[in-house]
Amino acid sequence: MRQITPVLFLLSLLLLLGVSGCGKQSPSASISDATPKESTSQESDAQKIEPQPSPQVTKKTIVIDAGHQQKANTQPEPIGPGASETKMKVTGGTAGVATGIPEYELTLTVSTLLKEELEARGYTVLLVRDRHDVDLSNRERADIANQAGADLFLRIHANGSEDPFTKGAMTLCPTPENPYPIGQLYEDCRLLADSILEGFTAATGAHAQMVWETDTMSGINWCQIPVTIVEMGYMSNPEEDVLLNTPDYQAKMVVGMANGVDAYFQQKAG
Predict the structure, then answer these.
(1) Model's pTM, two decimal places?
(2) Who's near 62: CB < 8 A, 6+ residues apart?
(3) What domains can be seen in the chain, in order of their start residue?
(4) From the first residue on, what is the mean pLDDT of each consecutive set of 10 residues in the chain (270 residues)?
């Protein structure tokens, strides 16, 4: 065996060190690898898309006014803010020709059931009155809804006519030309009136009379939030009077109105 000289030994050692160093990344290679490659347009779009959470329905506050009261208040009040025209503060309403039940009793019964149905769906609900012996004018009832910061105001009524054959349900809302602040909410009020009437008639099978646009109702004119009056049917029609006061039919009415409320908010949400 040949003897390795010191010089050859040193050269061999240097060569070995050089080979092992090639396995390490140089600083320039490290920077290059850290820089992201240019993404394709598909990759770029995918990075921008984030998973969307399931839509959550934010439940609203609803005020329900059971129309009329045990004793009418015949004192006058303006039909709207700044109006010179006046109407009675609140009337006693009609009564059933077959049942003899007064409208103010029927409206409170249905309003209480509607409150329970809407609360079961997650809404916050306030009743303007929960008994018959109150003295609340139509303006005061609207003020209660306004001050509650409610999202909408439902006024529950029953109809009457000199024609005993007239029957069916209707809703009321302001006209586009309403001169009071509620006129600025005409579109919302009309949407609410349509939604409630459609839900009501679908659930009950009642005849849909119409959405009556009118500026003669002080309980509408004093409102500052979307409002509709629901005329559930005619207590002057013997058949409809009995239906209106039947628990099964009342259950259908409140489900229909609640469905209308849901539809209104769904359409508002787009």
Answers:
(1) 0.79
(2) 118, 123, 124, 125, 126, 150, 151, 152, 153, 154, 261
(3) 61-269 (3.40.630.40)
(4) 44 41 36 36 38 51 98 98 98 97 98 98 98 98 97 98 98 98 98 98 98 98 98 98 98 98 96
